[in-house]
Specification:
alpha+beta, Beta-Lactamase, 3 helices
Length: 141
């Protein structure tokens, strides 16, 4: 299950965050969380080098960081592979729409709010795929 998604500019500013399920982490200040996520990703890059994704486990929750030239997508979920796949989908869609804008971005995060319905659409698509898989396995019982 996916709990929340944050999209950060590759320099660390929080551009957008969407919460799907109650999550204490998501109730925090998105700017502070963006700073935390940015710091974690920088530490990982320094220790590992160039990355496309990293995964961090905090208790039962998995945080998947997906990196591109322009953004870092952080997805909180209960399954690492699921969070990673969703992060890649979100990053690809966001970059297609906003990569050119981010080069000359003036700091106004309001322009990214129109992407929220796209995130929900991808979430529903992702959720229906998950339901189809669960239904398939139940049919085998």
């Amino acid at each position: 299950m996916i709990y929340a998604v944050w999209i950060l500019k590759n320099t660390g500013e929080t551009l957008l965050n969407v919460t799907f399920e109650k999550l204490k982490l998501a109730q925090g200040d998105p700017v502070l969380l963006g700073g935390l996520f940015s710091a974690l990703s920088e530490m990982a890059k320094q220790n590992v080098g160039d990355l496309t994704t990293i995964n961090i486990t905090i208790g039962e929750m998995k945080l998947s960081f997906t990196f591109s030239k322009t953004v870092i997508v952080v997805v909180a979920g209960d399954a690492e592979d699921e969070a990673k796949k969703f992060g890649i989908e979100i990053g690809k869609a966001f970059n297609q729409k906003y990569a050119q804008i981010l080069d000359k971005w003036d700091g106004n995060i309001g322009i990214f709010k129109e992407f929220i319905p796209e995130i929900h659409k991808l979430y529903q698509k992702h959720g229906s795929l998950e339901s189809d898989i669960e239904e398939f396995f139940r049919s085998l019982e």
